[in-house]
Sequence to fold (224 residues):
Amino acid sequence: MRLQHRQLRPLQDVPQRFRLSVQRLQIMQHPVWLTVMKLRAETLQAALIFTPIEAQIELLQKVLPEAKTIGILYCSAESNSEIQLQMTKEVCAEKELDVVEFSVASSNEIQSVVESAVGKVDALYSFTDNTIAAGMNTVAMVANENNLPVVCGEQGMVEAGGLCTYSIDYYELGYLAGQMAVKILKGEAEPATMPIEYYPSDKCEFIGNDATAETLGIDLSVAE
Fold:
């Protein structure tokens, strides 16, 4: 299919609002996006759509009621993961769960870091971290072989071998982004001053991996 080109208003004259899923923050490393950010930083606002960390930790407690020490698996090179790490630690503290951090600097370290978690924690939790998501097959291979459950931040990670999650509905996510755009087009809001919005936990869907649950001997019916 051929792409149709049309005359656009100059970028400098067009306020922009980008709805940004933290699962796709690597897009921001592209030179085009960096140039856009430099050109019109004052008109840009990223609405970070985080997965419901508290609901996911509650899910972990529901399917693993005896778990007391949680390992948080993430990539230290991703700024979005640092934000979610702090959020997770706060939630775990409120729920009286002990936390051990397991960080990787790159995908090359995933296997060794997951292996180091074996015997130290009752379960692993990984939020929407690009590096961990991309290497989830390795995470699951090591964790499942060592009877270490992994509760995940999104559906793709569960499909790659994680135990379960409350996952974002991407159709609903797009609808919420559309609502933001409507407010801007109607002049009801300014892109630079619109507040960051968070994906509502009650719109998330439970996703479980039955094969992983069977391997680990875990009953996921308690979460459905």
